[in-house]
């Protein structure tokens, strides 16, 4: 990210590193999955294909991220346990849970047809995720025992419920019958009422599924004499076990003991305080603007593999914009979003109570939905290109306490868009003109905006070439709800005109105050009480030396008070 005087907004980002010796577990859970399963006619109470799809996705995730040593899942949830000493994304919680959920969501979409060849996916699946940090092996053991108990209880309850419904009871009647029943009662009901021996049900339903890493010999090449050269490689395998938190299961696997440790005793009772800690999720401060920023992971490689046009691929950007529109339509608390390159920022209204303002739930729901939409919509935007790599994004949540700082945040992103785009346009034009990448880099070192514009004009032979580029490349994309008159009603004459709302994608200058004045509804704040912040950097800092650049003219204007003399007004056509 390039520098600008708006960079002070970074200081609002909070550290969320999970310290050693905590063991990192990422729990993921289907979002609104009862609707998803109904729309796709999953079998009740268990759909084996849907469970195997979840298992296959979890296996792919654990193969993709080698630090995941053990996973356990049932129904529409999975837990991924990382090796004790993992440095995965330097142990930052939001990076970790967002990447995992994003990857999982994209894989779920990619694999759908393998498991449901006859069923069209009718809407994008999404999941929520969070990091559970386990302070010791004892806590991890309690967590696993707790999840497997949940698998058993919910499966037993649902098996009874659906047998009762199949035999003529209404949903309400069935629930009434099961109220207050114990495990034993349910087993008897199943056996005596429906001739079902619960213990003979498939293990995948009763016990859930584990994904384990085991070491296998793998042939990497052959010697000249034909003898194989073998290396040890980690392979993910699927296992079912009655008690995954027992010593006899766990301590049998060398890899688990080496990377995580042994279980000292068996768990008899799960401590309620531990369960309370598993359910805890931190909330974002009330009455602040929440911004969720997502960013493509390894998109440099992703764009190379898919041969995106350099430096900007209009279709790739349109695909990002289309996903952002989908996110705004789904989460009505998002009032504005801004995207550039492989990133998008989503602004939630100050009063939002979405998921009780729990950051991991908000971030994961948005990043997951965005990822599955990106994967689904790929063919629409790139009909000729096969999706070769799984697209995935990281996400973070940041609170901005005032309207001014929120606008500075958005200005920071747009300044960044401009600086990067101008640099990249010059870089690729130099490369196209025959320079090597190193030469192009050296040519651009230390150049100011004006010089870059002159270079572009010289190389292209077009006066003011930079400003002929599409606005989307120069300004990024703003996505927001637009209020407009209902055209049908407006044409009907005297009736009062109804207002309609739709999500629009525009490429506006959001650094300019005039944009926010023209759209007071977006953030619902009055500009009259808007006092721009003073720059807090020392006058000799490198941030101020950047002022001379074209876009920083805008920055300077934005950060000073309103009563500049006309001579001081910088040009407004920089962006
Ligand atoms: P991480 O985010 O740290 O995983 O790295 P990254 O590889 O995603 O790079 P970063 O997010 O810093 O920057 C985004 C990268 O995506 C750019 O550097 C480009 O390489 C690539 N990219 C994004 N949009 C386009 C595009 O329209 N065309 C091309 N050719 N590349 C693009
Ligand atoms: Mg990226």
TrEMBL record:
- Which Pfam family name is an example for this entry? Thg1
Q: Is Magnesium found in the keyword set? A: yes
Q: Which UniProt keywords apply?
A: GTP-binding, Magnesium, Metal-binding, Nucleotide-binding, Nucleotidyltransferase, Nucleus, Transferase, tRNA processing
Under Gene3D superfamilies, the record lists:
3.30.70.3000
GO terms of molecular function: GTP binding; magnesium ion binding; tRNA guanylyltransferase activity
| One GO CC term on file | nucleoplasm
- UniProt-listed GO biological process terms: tRNA modification
Query: Which residue range or ranges hold the Thg1 C-terminal domain?
Result: 139-231, 405-512
| The protein, known as | tRNA(His) guanylyltransferase
- Species the sequence originates in: Olea europaea subsp. europaea
């Amino acid at each position: 990210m390039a520098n600008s005087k708006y960079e002070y907004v970074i200081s609002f980002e909070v550290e969320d590193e999970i310290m050693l010796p905590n063991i990192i577990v990422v729990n993921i859970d289907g979002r609104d999955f009862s609707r998803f399963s109904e729309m796709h006619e999953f079998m009740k109470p268990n759909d084996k294909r849907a469970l195997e799809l979840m298992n296959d996705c979890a296996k792919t995730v654990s193969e993709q991220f080698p630090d995941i040593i053990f996973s356990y899942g049932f129904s529409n949830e999975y837990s991924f346990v990382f090796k004790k000493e993992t440095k995965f994304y330097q142990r930052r919680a939001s990076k970790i849970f967002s990447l995992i959920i994003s990857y999982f969501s994209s894989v779920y979409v990619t694999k759908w047809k393998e498991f449901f060849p006859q069923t069209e996916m009718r809407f994008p699946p999404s999941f929520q995720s969070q990091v559970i940090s386990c302070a010791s092996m004892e806590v991890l053991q309690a967590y696993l025992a707790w999840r497997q108990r949940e698998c058993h209880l919910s499966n037993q309850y649902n098996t009874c419920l659906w047998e009762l419904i199949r035999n003529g009871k209404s949903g309400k009647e069935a629930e009434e019958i099961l109220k207050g029943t114990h495990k034993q009662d349910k087993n008897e009901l199943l056996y005596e009422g429906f001739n079902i021996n619960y213990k003979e049900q498939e293990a995948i339903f009763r016990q859930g599924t584990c994904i384990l890493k085991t070491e296998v010999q793998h042939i990497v090449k052959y010697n000249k004499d034909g003898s194989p050269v073998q290396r040890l490689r980690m392979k993910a395998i699927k296992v079912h076990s009655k008690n995954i938190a027992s010593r006899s299961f766990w301590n049998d696997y060398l890899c688990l003991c080496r990377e995580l440790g042994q279980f000292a005793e068996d768990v008899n009772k799960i401590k309620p305080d531990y369960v309370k800690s598993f359910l805890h999720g931190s909330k974002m401060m009330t009455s602040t603007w929440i911004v969720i920023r997502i960013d493509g992971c390894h998109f440099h490689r992703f764009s190379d593999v898919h041969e995106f046009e350099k430096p900007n691929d209009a279709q790739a950007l349109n695909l990002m914009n289309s996903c952002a529109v989908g996110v705004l339509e789904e989460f009505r608390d998002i009032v504005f979003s801004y995207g550039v390159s492989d990133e998008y920022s989503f602004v939630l209204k100050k009063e939002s109570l979405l998921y009780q303002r729990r950051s991991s739930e908000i971030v994961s729901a948005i990043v997951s939905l965005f990822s599955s939409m990106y994967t689904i919509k790929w063919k629409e935007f790139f009909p000729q290109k096969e999706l070769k790599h799984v697209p995935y994004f990281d996400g973070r949540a940041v609170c901005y306490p005032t309207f001014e700082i929120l606008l500075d945040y958005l200005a920071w992103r747009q300044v960044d868009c401009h600086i990067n785009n101008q640099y990249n346009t010059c870089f690729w034009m130099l490369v196209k003109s025959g320079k090597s990448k190193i030469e192009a880099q050296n040519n651009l070192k230390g150049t100011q905006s004006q010089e870059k514009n002159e270079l572009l004009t010289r190389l292209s032979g077009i006066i003011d070439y930079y400003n002929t580029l599409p606005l989307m490349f120069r300004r990024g994309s703003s996505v927001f709800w637009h209020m407009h008159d209902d055209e049908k009603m407006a044409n009907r004459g005297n009736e009062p005109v109804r207002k309609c709302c739709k999500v629009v994608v525009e490429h506006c200058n959001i650094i300019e105050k005039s944009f926010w004045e023209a759209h007071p509804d977006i953030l619902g704040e009055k500009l009259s009480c808007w006092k721009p912040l003073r720059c807090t950097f020392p006058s000799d800092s490198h941030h101020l030396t950047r002022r001379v650049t074209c876009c920083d003219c805008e920055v300077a204007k934005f950060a000073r008070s309103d009563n500049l003399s006309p001579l001081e007004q910088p040009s407004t056509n920089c962006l």
